[in-house]
Amino acid sequence: MPKISIIDVTNRDGVQTARLGLAKLEKTMMNVYLNDMGVHQSEFGFPVTHHETNYLNANLELAEMGVLKPMILSGWCRAIVNDVEESFRLTKVEHLNISISTSEQMTNGKFQGRVVRSPANDPSKPNVVKMMTDALDRAKDLGICTGVNAEDASRTDMDYLIEFSMAAKEHGADRIRYCDTLGYDDPFTIYERVRKLAETVKIPIELHCHNDLGMAVACSVAGAKGAVDAGYDAYINTTVNGLGERTGNCDLASVLLAVKKSSGFKDKDLLDKRIDLQKTWQIAKYASYAFGVPLPINQVAVGDNAFAHSSGIHADGALKDRRNYELYDFEELGRGDPEIIETGREIIAGEYSGIKGFRNVYDKLEIEFKDDDEATKILELVRFANVHTQKPLTDGELKFIAKYPEQARKIMTVTPLSAE
After folding, report:
1. Domain ranges of the chain
2. Structural element, H or E, at residue 209
């Protein structure tokens, strides 16, 4: 039976959200929590972007150490041979998604006549399929596992999308990413298009849906069903709390619950068995803090009102039997424990902390240092981390720095290129 797995793109597409972003330490913590949650893969950044290099390599080190295992760490780059080579030179990344636009709108509107979709349009100019296959061939030469992204697939005519995808498969693509880049699809069209694509090309399909029409989750789930019904594995791209460009991407918690709890899926056992729903609350709260975006009160699964009942009929029904008005249990999501807020004296480790206050903070976390020299070295890293994130560090971040100081140091090191 084909399966549905999650490829989270918070650290690639989510951080492209206008006015928002994550520090490299925060991106690393997102990877830690995604791995703990059982997510199949994290698209963790841009290997050709130099300010990402140290962060990416440190995370690859953490994967080698078993800290970020078994989750796969994958990069994103353009379908250009030089981008593939630079990705490998700078990071030695073993998984890439290469991306190029496939619709007439984007090919004409973005390339402005410099690139055509097919040699038939102009044999003297580079064409989309050849650019993609050249980049894919080079990735395979370097031993990189590669997915191919059809940007704006939802506005691409089906015959061309099949031609593009067949060429990708023939050159060794591991799967095709069907990108609903503008949220143009609806659940009915994407089901039919993805099913036809999977049946014709005979390849696993990734669903990458945006929320411009408010249907990112519905389209992702419907598209995944199209691939599964065709007999192929489906991979859904998500972001934590649905953050992403414009109106956002496909929300992680919503997708997980839809595939596990909705009427057409609940008995089919399609979701990757590694997924641990109990981590939902933790990762949603961390992402909210790190991005600086409060969770909407009605956010699926993790909003303050997700399990709140006020009206008499609802409160009475929920108290008699939770299934009257709750489709799933809050305990399943890691909710239910009281949150403790300090209302008295509080010592916080910051960029100007001294050793006494720092030791107090770590004593509360039950972390001991072998001597003052080790404590002083970690304190210095914690100071830099506060400069790096520009907000008080979470307990998880403090523990990570103490446990993996060398990787933390690398993650927070950004060296601008020489002006020469």
Report:
1. 4-291, 307-339, 340-403
2. strand 205-209
| CB-based burial label for 320 (10 Å; 0-12, 13-18, 19+) | exposed
Which of 56, 53, 52, 61 has the alpha carbon at shortest distance from 42? 56
Using DSSP, state whether 97 is helix, strand or coil.
strand
SS3 content of the chain, % helix, strand, coil (to 5): 45, 15, 40
CATH of 4-291, one of 3.40.1280.10, 3.30.1330.60, 3.10.120.10, 3.20.20.70: 3.20.20.70
User: Structure tokens of 104?
Assistant: 């007439």
Closest CA to 45 of 33, 69, 61, 28: 28
How big is the CA angle at 133 (ends 127 and 136), to the nearest 5 degrees? 140
Q: How many helices (H) and strands (E) does the chain have?
A: 15, 8
pTM: 0.95
Whole-angstrom distance, CA of residue 386 vs CA of residue 405: 15
- Residues for the chain: how many in total? 420
Structure-token pair, residue 302: 């993790």
**Is residue 60 scored above 90 in pLDDT?**
yes
Write the pLDDT tens digit of every residue in 232-270: 999 999 999 999 999 999 999 999 999 999 999 988 999
Written as one string, the DSSP assignment of 384-404 is HHHHHHSSPPPHHHHHHHHH-
Alpha carbon distances (Å) from 196 to 217, 230, 264: 20, 8, 20
